[in-house]
Amino acid sequence: MTTMTIDQAKDHLSELLVKAANGEEVLIMRDDGSTFGVVPMHVAPRKKRGLIGSMRGKIWMAGDFDEIPEGFEDSMPERPV
Asked: How would you label 43-65 residue by residue, b for 16+ Cβ within 10 Å and e otherwise?
């Protein structure tokens, strides 16, 4: 939870908005003791990230994948030596 006075919140408003958007409770206090919460009205959905290695064993590559198919040798550009 983050709690700040109004004067502090003025200097750190963008930081407070990021914290509130990430689900952290943000409170702003006035001198008279009243407290206000910063709450996002709409939070953009987080992008799903794939798990590393989640496709292991589901993809295979032929042993000759990088060989030129028979009959295509003439259409390939010459490689510098």
From this structure: eeeeeeeeeeeeeeeeeeeeeee
Q: Where are the alpha helices (H) located in the chain, listed in sequence order?
A: 6-11, 13-21
Residues 3, 35: Cα–Cα separation, whole Å: 9
Which residue stretches of the chain have pLDDT < 50?
Answer: none
Question: Is 49 inside a domain boundary?
Answer: no
pLDDT at 36: 95
Domain of residue 36, CATH code = 3.40.1620.10
Q: Is 26 within 8 Å of 20 (Cβ atoms)?
A: yes
Say what the pLDDT of residue 43 is: 63
